[in-house]
UniProtKB/TrEMBL annotation:
This is Lrp/AsnC family transcriptional regulator. SUPFAM superfamilies: Dimeric alpha+beta barrel. Residues 6-76 form the Transcription regulator AsnC/Lrp ligand binding domain. InterPro entries: Dimeric_a/b-barrel, Tscrpt_reg_AsnC/Lrp_C. Gene3D superfamilies: 3.30.70.920. Signal peptide: none annotated. It comes from the Bacteria. It holds the Pfam family AsnC_trans_reg.
Length: 93
């Protein structure tokens, strides 16, 4: 499984519609609107790098309102939720 964070610049007058269209794309697990240098951040989870290479420019990049994307591939998760889940395995019984 490949996880990527896609930073998206969007047309200002289309941010809500663009965010929803991206959220509806298969492989996109979450979309956040945000302040700062980008308008939207999408979390993408796909099976392999080929799928990511197809999804970002071929689907997300073509959504109406998307001006630019910048993709960052995640190597490892350090979230507390993941750590808690790992230690909870086999804890019930």
């Amino acid at each position: 499984m490949v996880t990527a964070i896609v930073l998206i610049k969007a047309a200002t007058d289309r941010i809500p519609e663009t965010a929803q269209a991206i959220a509806d794309v298969e492989g996109v697990s979450e979309v956040y609107s945000c302040a700062g240098d980008v308008d939207l951040i999408a979390v993408v989870r796909v099976g392999d790098h080929e799928a990511l290479a197809d999804l970002v420019p071929g689907v997300i990049g073509k959504v109406a309102g998307v001006v630019d994307t910048d993709t960052h591939i995640a190597f490892r998760s350090y979230s507390s939720r993941d750590t808690e889940a790992a230690f909870a395995i086999g804890g019930e019984g």
